[in-house]
Automatic annotation (TrEMBL):
Keywords: Membrane, Transmembrane, Transmembrane helix. The chain crosses the membrane at residues 16-36, 42-61. This is DUF6526 family protein.
Amino acid sequence: MQQQNYSNHRKMDPPYHYVLSFLCLLILIGSIWFLIASGKVFEGLLFLAIALALLILFLKVRGYGLRAQDRAIRAEENLRHFILTGMPHDSRLTIGQIIALRFASDKEFPQLSRKAAENNMKPDDIKKAINSWRADHNRL
């Protein structure tokens, strides 16, 4: 497997990100077209409601999965910080900063955590500041 770094750490799930998102968009457009072109108001509104429900489901399912992963990452990184420093994470760190810090090696993790909290670094800036990358191949 290719070594992970800042430029290649983002992962996409093609069936979800490309196929399913395209199908949701196609169904939404088709339902709007059917409502306008068919003259069947009840059926068109029902079709549109189903398309909107599918679109909301598509967006929410992704969010729920990411939120669960975020909670797990926060707990793992707080434990890692405690093991390395004897102290929990700085309470000023946001979940986005903690998620970005998970890529830092154990050697630079405590110092970068402190710097991120003190300077209120953006997650992308934290990732760019990492010298020794610690891969995470599990998150999508």
